[in-house]
Structure formats: C-alpha cells, structure tokens
C-alpha cells in the first residue's frame, strides 16, 4: 500500500521509519514541494473561497452580538465564542461554497462527478463582493481591515512548526494578561468588611451544623464551602 502526502509540517519526513512493524507494508511517499495547489482539487479555490465565507460569517456574528448587547468585541471573543459557535459558522460558510466552484475544482481530475447546475440555481456572490462585505463588517466592529489584510487574503502556504509555537505562546501570554487584569479588577475589601463577612459565615456555619437534619451532609457542605469559597479570604 502507498500513503501519499504533501509536505505539510504536520507530516514528518521520517514517518515511514516510525511505522510499527505491523504496518511495514505501507510505503510513504511525499509530493514534490509546492505542487499541492496544482494537484489537489480542494486547493483549486475551494478552500480559499471557504475561508473568505467563514471570515464573513464570523464578522457578521461579531457585529450582531456586539450590536444588540453591551458586550465589547474582546468580551464576545473571550466569553461567548466557543467550538459550537465555530462549527455553526463552518456549516453556514460551507453551504455558501457554490456548485460551480466545486465543479471547476474536480472537472479535470474526475469529470464524471461534476454535476451540471440546475438552470434555476442562483449565481454565487462574486469574490469581490464577499471581500467588500468582510471589510465593511470588520470596520463596523471597530477593526482596521482592508482587502489586502491578512484576515481576508488568500493563504498560500502552511504555517511552520515555529510559527505554530509562536502563535501558541502569544495566546498563552494574552490569557495570562487577561487573568491578571481580572484579578486586579476584583474589588478589594477593607479589613473591617472582611472581618464582618467572615463572622457572618461563622454564624451561618454554626446554625447549619446545629439545626440541619443531616449532620454528615451539613459537615461535608460546610467543609467544601470553607475550602472552595472562603479559603482566599
């Protein structure tokens, strides 16, 4: 069997040597450098167009969330954008990839799979229109975006391992800075207020332990509250 791969950083050149003995029947071969965009159908503008459609839908989601709430763009990104949101946007973006786009990508390699578009099918939005919408939405949400910006331009190469590490490092630094900012924003209690709050907890703790019908449960909950809630004070 043959495993044919491109030269993406995630595909180590010594992969065949690392295969277990049970898989020594597999021969690993790599495409020549810079040939992937020419040989792989999905690289014939399909992925590029999908990325643009995804960016447009992402900016649209950012605009809608910040426009109808008091959230800032940073707050939306950190607290309200998750994997589910990402998958929803991917679904919408992929639905926007036109049949014409797919046909042009596969026609030369596998002409039998090309589906003739229905006469009533609506024409896809021109790429220039999608780019204009991305720029417009980006500027509406407060971003300085142009059609030449890296957010919307076509990415014609994979990130290297060093670039991926650098991105991860930047993300961790941003998260650390955000957590430190959150800690600084917590209201500082005076010693008098802190003493009063702790005394209130002691009084409540005594009451619960004396009057709760399930003494064992009361003890566990009080201990848990002491550890998880009161320990910072």
Automatic annotation (TrEMBL):
Q: Which domain of life is it from?
A: Eukaryota
Q: Which GO terms describe its cellular component?
A: nucleus
Record GO terms (molecular function): DNA binding
Taking every annotated instance into account, which residue ranges of this chain make up the domain DDE-1? Answer: 1-106
Q: Which Pfam families match?
A: DDE_1
Q: Which PANTHER family match?
A: HTH CENPB-TYPE DOMAIN-CONTAINING PROTEIN, TRANSPOSON
Q: Per its record, how is this protein called by name?
A: Tigger transposable element-derived 1-like
Supply the source organism for this entry. Answer: Pelobates cultripes (Western spadefoot toad)
